[in-house]
From TrEMBL:
List of residues binding heme: C493
Record's keyword terms, sorted: Heme, Iron, Membrane, Metal-binding, Monooxygenase, Oxidoreductase, Transmembrane, Transmembrane helix
UniProt keyword annotation of Oxidoreductase present: yes
UniProt-recorded name of the protein: Cytochrome P450 1A1-like
SUPFAM superfamilies recorded: Cytochrome P450 (SSF48264)
Highest taxon above the source species: Eukaryota
GO biological process: hormone biosynthetic process; progesterone metabolic process
Gene3D superfamilies: Cytochrome P450
Cofactor(s) essential for the protein: heme
Membership in a protein family: Belongs to the cytochrome P450 family.
Transmembrane regions listed in the UniProt entry: 56-77, 89-107
GO MF term set: heme binding; iron ion binding; steroid 17-alpha-monooxygenase activity
């Protein structure tokens, strides 16, 4: 039997109050009572909920108004602070100029520089960023005021891959870092000038020469071959051994490096909004898992090195580093005890991480630039033939007799500047630049791209012309200060001697054996940087070349 409510009357009180009168008139009187009870219980509940909701609403409103006020106040304070800092475009609260950091933003910076000058300010989220957009400003900051601008940005991604800034790349400017960098620099220099590097690079090169020989005459995308070649060169420098393509460890390192490259370029939201660092985002979870696997691998390699260390047989940079570390201990260096096992492991990760992609991409630029400029390639081959007999590979001892090769490498590093914005720096103290105030902790982005492509310095910066580094007699001119693919100052790349030695041996070895040409019927390659590299990397667009043996 259904009983229907014929009518009801509710006198509603104010929000949160129980209605004082709640009368229901039913067809069935017996049911009326229980229904009234149910409804009144419900209304009591609703009223309580309303009351709770009201207090939550009030609380939420208070929080929101508080937050909005905070954002507004900090925005106004930022605008006031900006008046003493380098000029820059309007920025929104919370997001700042975030959209200017999309795509190849070193190119956006060139355009912004035309309006705001050689040094300007931006907001990346709520972080202050100052862009150094000309050679003079970069040198003033990184070289003349080196220590003030030698800090590093502390970000969630950086912390994760460097175990809390314990490597050289992400480490902050402090006594432990200075010692770590000094030892690293010494180790790289010793390795790069010794016979070991030459033997290892030439061994890896022979493998790729065999591969290229089997591909003779075909149009080939050489990226995978170059990656494998450089990975082996870098593995030899770090771990002392070369791998075969099918080795499990080699596959692991290849997978990891490629994934790190992708994730590293993406970064994490918490890099810009540190208060979101607690969020377990998918990128963070993947990054953490991969880093742990990666570090385990490096720990194993480092432990083996320590156990088998022989000062009379230094196999790689890791050995050179261990030797210098032991010497610093014996000499009683004041900061040696602050260098933990994690710092040492992270130094080894740096050899690998900082050397791999930079050298791979420099070699990719070299090959496409030579294929697009056969006249340069012919001069290189002729110079090599005049100095190095065909029955032996070029060695580091030949370098000084090969000025055209030297200037071609400089031109490749200039034209295809792989790290166009350097690695962002941070100010270590409140400082000044070109009369503007720069507070401590400001992120600094030196636009190296602009220095190597400035028409006022180079005349024809978009032309690939190795001759610009030679005098009329074909001798190498002193290196111009605007050539800064390795940056400058306290943080300048400590791997430069190794990078230059590797690129020299690889390029000279390849040009001695092969001629690289563009596939017939295809127009000139696109020599603009590939947008895939985003703001952090300037990489060559995908291309194919044909390799033929030199007779
Ligand atoms: C063509 C190859 C390379 C290029 C273009 C390159 C470029 C750079 C640049 C632009 C920086 C940032 C400097 C700054 O913050 O101002 C850097 C940092 C660094 N590079 Fe390289 N690099 C190359 C190869 C290497 C190699 C082979 C190694 C190791 C053996 C290496 C190790 C490092 C390290 C450890 C840092 C961090 C330095 C610091 O924070 O003080 N790099 N590199």
């Amino acid at each position: 039997m259904t009983s229907r409510v014929k009518s009801y009357k509710v006198v509603v009180g104010r929000v949160g109050e129980i209605p004082p009168v709640c009368t229901f008139v039913y067809q069935d009187q017996v049911r009326q009572q229980s229904f009234v009870t149910t409804v009144s219980t419900f209304s009591c509940f609703t009223a309580k909920a309303k009351k709770t909701m009201a207090s939550w609403t009030t609380w939420l409103m208070t929080v929101l108004v508080g937050l909005a006020t905070l954002v507004l106040v900090s925005w106004v304070l930022d605008i006031i602070k900006r008046r003493r800092m380098p000029p820059g475009p309007f920025f929104w609260p919370i997001i700042g100029n975030i959209f200017m950091f999309g795509g190849q933003f070193y190119l956006t910076f060139v355009e912004l520089g035309k309006k705001y000058g050689d040094v300007f300010s931006l907001k990346l989220g709520m972080r202050d960023v100052v862009v150094l957009n000309s050679l003079d400003v970069i040198r003033e900051a990184l070289v003349k005021k080196g220590a003030d601008f030698a800090g590093r940005t502390q970000t969630a991604t950086g912390d994760l891959i460097s175990e809390g800034g314990k490597d050289i790349v992400m480490g902050d400017f402090n006594p432990t870092w200075k010692l770590q960098r000094k030892l690293f620099h010494g180790a790289v220099r010793a390795y790069a000038t010794g016979r070991t590097l030459e033997d290892k690079v030439q061994g890896a090169l022979n493998d790729v020469i065999d591969e290229f020989s089997s591909l003779e005459g075909k149009a080939v995308d050489v990226e995978a071959h170059v990656f494998k070649l450089v990975l082996n060169v870098v593995c030899s420098a770090t771990f002392g051994h070369r791998y075969k393509m099918e080795d499990e460890d080699f596959q692991f390192l290849m997978r990891m490096s490629q994934k790190f490259f992708e994730l590293g370029a993406q970064g994490m939201l918490a890099d810009i909004y540190p208060s979101l660092a607690f969020l377990p985002t998918p990128t963070k979870t993947t990054f953490t898992k991969m880093s742990n696997e990666f570090f385990k691998y490096f720990k194993r390699e480092l432990d083996q090195h320590i156990q088998t260390f022989d000062p009379d047989n230094l196999r790689d940079i890791t050995d050179h580093f261990i030797k210098l570390q032991k010497e610093a201990e014996e000499e009683g260096d004041a900061d040696i005890n602050s260098l933990t096992d994690t710092h040492i492991r992270q130094t080894i990760v740096d050899i690998f991480g900082a050397a791999l992609d930079t050298t791979v991409q420099s070699m990719r630029w070299s090959i496409v630039l030579l294929a697009a400029h056969p006249e340069v390639q012919e001069k290189l081959a002729a110079e090599l033939d005049s100095v190095v007999e065909r029955n032996r590979q070029p060695s580091l001892a030949d370098r000084s007799a090969l000025p055209y090769m030297d200037s071609t490498i400089n031109e490749v590093l200039r034209f295809g500047i792989v790290v166009p914005l350097s690695v962002p720096h941070a100010t270590t103290v409140d400082t000044t630049l070109m009369g503007y105030e720069i507070p401590k902790g400001t992120w600094i982005m030196p636009n190296l791209w602009n220095a190597v492509r400035d028409p006022e310095i180079w005349g024809d910066p978009n032309v690939f012309r190795p001759e610009r580094f030679l005098d009329d007699d074909g001798k190498v001119l002193p290196k111009p200060s605007a050539l800064m693919p390795f940056s400058a100052g306290r943080r300048a790349c400590p791997g430069e001697p190794m990078a230059r030695a590797d690129i020299f041996l690889l390029l000279a070895g390849l040009v001695q054996k092969f001629k690289f040409s563009l596939p017939e019927g295809e127009g000139p390659p696109d020599l603009a940087p590939d947008p895939k590299g985003a703001g952090l990397f300037c990489i060559a667009c995908p291309y194919k070349v044909v390799m033929t043996h030199r007779k």
